[in-house]
Amino acid sequence: MSTVLEQSLAHAPVTELKNVGDKLADKLAKLGIHCVQDLLFHLPLRYQDRTRITPIGSLSPNLDVVIEGEIMLADVVFGKRRSLAVRLQDGTGTITLRFYHFSGAQKNNLKKGARIRCYGEVRRGRAGLELYHPEYQFVEDLQALPTEETLTPIYPSTEGLTQARWRQLMSQVMSLLKKGRAIDDLIPDAMLNPYQLPDLRSALMYLHQPPKGANLQELENNQHPAQKRLIMEELLAHNLSLLKMRATIQFDHAPILPESTRFKLPFLSSLPFKPTNAQQRVVQEIQQDLSKGFPMLRLVQGDVGSGKTLVAAMAALSALEQGYQVALMAPTEILAEQHLKNFQSWFEPLGISLAWLAGKVKGKAREATMAAIKSGDAQLVIGTHALFQDEVVFSKLGLAIIDEQHRFGVHQRLALKQKGNGFSPHQLIMTATPIPRTLAMTAYADLDTSIIDELPPGRTPVNTVAIDQHRREQVVERIRGACLSGRQAYWVCTLIEESEALEAQAAQVTAQALQEALPELKIGLVHGRLKPKEKADIMAEFKQGGIHLLVATTVIEVGVDVPNASLMIIENPERLGLAQLHQLRGRVGRGTAESHCVLMYNMPLSQAGKQRIQAMRDTTDGFKIAEIDLQIRGPGEVLGTRQTGLMQMRIADLQRDGYLLEDIKQWAQLCQQHAPQIIELLISRWLGENIQYGQV
Ligand code: ADP
Ligand code: MG
Q1: I want to staple 330 with a disulfide (CB 3.0 to 4.6 A). Which of 9, 224, 336, 554 is the partner?
Q2: Model pTM?
Q3: Could you give the domains of the chain?
C-alpha cells in the first residue's frame, strides 16, 4: 500500500497530460472530469473484442467482429437509398460492407484490390451478411498487422469526443498508473483479501484494458471482482462520511431531557385511546436519546395512520416540561394546520402556549409570532418551511420535530442545528414513506431509526380496485350510495403539469361536474390556490361531516385525518408515484367502517403505470410498497436525493449494489478500528466537493 500522496498525480488537472488543451479539458469538464483521478474512475460502458480476426466464412449475424480481406468489387448501388457496397473476401468467404454515407475519397480508396481490416456488427442485409458502416483501416499485407492485445473499451462520451481520443487519453493515464503515479491505494490488503478483491491499481488496469478472454458477461453485470473493488470502496466512503457526521454531532451539547412527569399522565388520560405497544416502544427509544446530553437524530418510520403524531407529542412534552421550546415542521400548510388543531386540543388544557408560523403569516401577526418565539412565550411552534428562515430566532429550542421528512432535504434538516443558541436541538424526523432497509443504511446511516410496526386497533384494511375511466358513471353512483348512507368520500384530481393553477382549475371543473351529477350531496373543494383560512374552513367542515364529498388536488396527500371518510377516488392514478398513491390512500381506512380506494385510470397504461397500480391492489403494507417503488424507480428518485447531494455516486449504484451494504458496514468498522488514517482520504476521494455534507 503506497501512502505517499505527494507522488500521486491523482489531483493533477487533466491539462497536465500530453495533448490535452483547454478545448479538450472543457469537453471533459462537461462529464465532470477535471483531474487524473476523475479519468481513472470514468469507466467504460462496455467492451468490444478486437483481439482476433474472424474468418469471413464463419461469420454469423449479430456478432461484433474484426475481419480482414481484399476488396473484390466496390459499387454505388441505387435503390430505395443510395449506398456504397463493397464486396470483401478473405479466401474463406465473402461479405458486403455497406455505407449509406460516404465521401468521394472513401469511394475512391475502397477500390478493387485494396486490403482492409474492419470492425463492425454482422447483420443480415440485402446481399446476405453485411457490415453497416464498419470502422476500417487499410493494411499492406493480410495477417501482418497485429490485433489488439486487450479488449477495447467504449467510454461514455460527449459530443465531439471520439472513442479513439478516449483510448489515447486513457493509455496515457494507464502508463502513469503502471508506474504507480496515478493514484494511491488506500484499502489495506487485510480488508481486501477476505473478499478476494484486487488492489486498486490492478482493478483499474483491468477495467480500462481487460485482457483477452476476460469474462464480458461478468463485466456487463458489474459483478467482476475489479468492479466490486471500486464499488465497495465508493460505498465505504459514503458510509464513513455519514458515520463521521454522526460522530461530529455527538460532540455537540444538547439539553438533557428526562421523561415528563408533570404533563405525561394528564395528557395520556385525556386521550380517547391507549397508545399501541409499538408507539410505547418508540416513545421509550426516543426518551433514551433525549436524556443523553447530545443531540438525538432519530428517524421514526411508521406507515400512514400508525400514529406518529402521538409519539411526537410525547417527545415534545419531555422538552416542554424542562422549559425548552419545541418546533414542529410539516411540509404543507394543510398538514401543519392540522397539527396545530391537534396540538391545541391536546396541549392547551395543559397550559402550554402554541404559536403558528407559515409563509403566509404576514405583517403584525408575523411580528408578534416572531417576538413570542424569541422571548420564549411561544412554547410549541408549529409551521412549514418558514420555520427554517434565518430571522426566526428561538429563545431556547430543545427539540425539532420534522414531519414527513421525505419532503425536506438533508441540508434543511441540518440548518436546524444553527437554531439552538449554544447547543444543538434534538431532532426527531418522522416519515410515512418507509425507506427500504437497504437505502436507509446508506442514506441515513447518520440517523437512528425507530419503526412503528403496528396500526391502532380497529382499522380495516383498505380495499383497492382499479377501474377504467369509462366506468366513471358507476363510480359516481358508488359515491352517491356511500355518502347517502352516512359516509364521506374524497375525489382526488391529478395533473401531470407541476402547475398549481392548472391543477386547481381542473379540480374546479371536476367539482362542478360532480355537483351536477350529485345534486343531493354537499361537495367541497380544496386546492393549493386557496387562502389558508379558506382551506382550513373547508377541511374543518369536512371533518365535522358538513361536506359529503371533498374534491381535492394532491394537496391532501399527507397527514389529513378524517376517520369517517371511507371512500377515495383517485383520478389518473398512473400519473402519480407509488409512494404518493400510498400516502393518498392512507387518508381512508382510518375509522372502523370498511374503506375503499378506487383507482380510476386512463388507458393506455405504461408498463410502470401498470406495475404501480398492481402493487397498490396487492398490498397496503407501506414497507412492501417502498421496496416495490425502489425496484421501479431506483434510489435517487425514491429518496428525492438530487437535492441532498448524497446519491451522486460515480461507480456504485445503490439499487444494483445494495446487496453489498452489509459487507460495507463491516468494512467501515474495520476501517475505524484498524485504518483510521484512510478515512479522510477515502471521503475526500469519493465525495470530493460534496464534502461539506460530511462536515455539517
Ligand atoms: P400518522 O402516523 O399517519 O401521522 P396520525 O398520528 O395522524 O398517523 O394518527 C392517525 C389517527 O390514529 C389519528 O386519528 C389518531 O388520533 C389515531 N391514533 C393514534 N394513535 C392511536 C391509538 N393508539 N389508538 C387509536 N387511535 C390512535
Ligand atoms: Mg402524520
Answers
A1: 336
A2: 0.66
A3: 5-47+153-221 (no CATH), 52-147 (2.40.50.140), 222-324+396-459+624-696 (3.40.50), 463-619 (3.40.50.300)
The secondary structure element, H or E, covering residue 333 is helix 333-347
pLDDT (0 to 100) of residue 423:
79
How many angstroms separate the CA atoms of 572 and 601, rounded?
Answer: 5
Tell which phi-psi region holds residue 528, choosing left (phi > 0), alpha (psi between -120 and 50) or beta. Answer: alpha
Q: Judge if the beta carbon of residue 306 lies within 6 A of ligand 1.
A: yes
Residue pair 560/338 in contact (Cβ under 8 Å)? The answer is yes
Rounded-to-integer distance, Cα 183 and Cα 204, Å = 10
Evaluate: CB of 352 within 6 angstroms of ligand 1: no
Q: What ranges in 604-678 are assigned the alpha helix state H?
A: 607-618, 622-633, 635-639, 654-657, 661-674
Task: Specify whether the CB–CB gap between 430 and 404 falls below 8 A.
Answer: yes
pLDDT 10s digits, 501-556:
777 888 999 999 999 999 999 999 998 888 878 888 898 899 999 999 999 988 77
300 touches ligand 1 (CB under 6 Å)? no
Q: Which strands make up the sheet holding 397-403, listed edge to edge?
A: 354-357, 380-383, 325-329, 397-403, 426-431, 297-302, 448-452
Q: How far apart are CA 650 and CA 619, in angstroms?
A: 35
Q: Ligand 1 in contact with 305 (CB < 6 A)?
A: yes
Cell numbers that stand for 539 in this block: 377541511
Of 308, 309, 406, the one to substitute when testing ligand 1's pocket (max ligand atoms within 8 A of C-beta) is 309
The Cα–Cα gap between 493 and 578 comes to 16
Write the pLDDT tens digit of every residue in 147-180: 888 999 999 998 889 998 999 999 999 999 998 8
The secondary structure element, H or E, covering residue 526 is: strand 523-526
Give tens-digit pLDDT for 8-18.
788 899 999 99
Calculate how far, in angstroms, residue 339's C-alpha sits from the geometric centre of ligand 2.
Answer: 8
pLDDT at 528: 81
